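Supplementary Methods, section 5.1.

A reviewer requested that the exact input to the structure prediction be made available. We therefore reproduce it here, unchanged from the version used in the analyses.
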Amino acid sequence: MEYFLETVCTPTWHLQLDAGVSFTTAAEPLMAKHRPLRSLIQAYNDRFDEMWGALSSALVQMLVEIQLSGVPTYAATNWPGEYWNLAMDTFPFLRSFDGALVSGLIGFTKPSPAFFQTLTIAFSLTPARTLFIDDRLDNVDAARKAGYRGHQFLDNLNLRTFLLENGVSINQGGVEGDDRSRS
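The structure derived from this sequence is encoded token-by-token as follows.
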């Protein structure tokens, strides 16, 4: 599996799905190049949801606490547009956001400046007053360049500290420990 994901359906290849290219279009050249692996390439699409990692219940609880405190929350994700509804069905908490900017639906990904411009406009955000949290440092750096108050998610405790330092008070219950997000 690791070999297949490192040499055929690579992260670089997958990025075009995140940018809005359909699986069918993206897979066509792969299937032509790797004929014996056609069924595995198709399985990447057909069994896409099986590749999702485990969900951090403590992190979802922290999101609920933030939302209960009255702070608006928005999802800003690199995600293939054609799988977004499946993701929301699989992870119902995704429907709890006040809005979602999905790269595969808009045609470009984080960390591009266009993503952050669209995020700002779509939700009428004031970047200097908006906390941006992401697990990837390149996305956090891009958010900071766009004026957002960025934070790299490492674990729930460092996130809770960042939130408290930025005036977001949440219930401490259910957010202790290093329950890392894997999604």
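The radius of gyration is 18 Å. These observations are discussed further in the main text.
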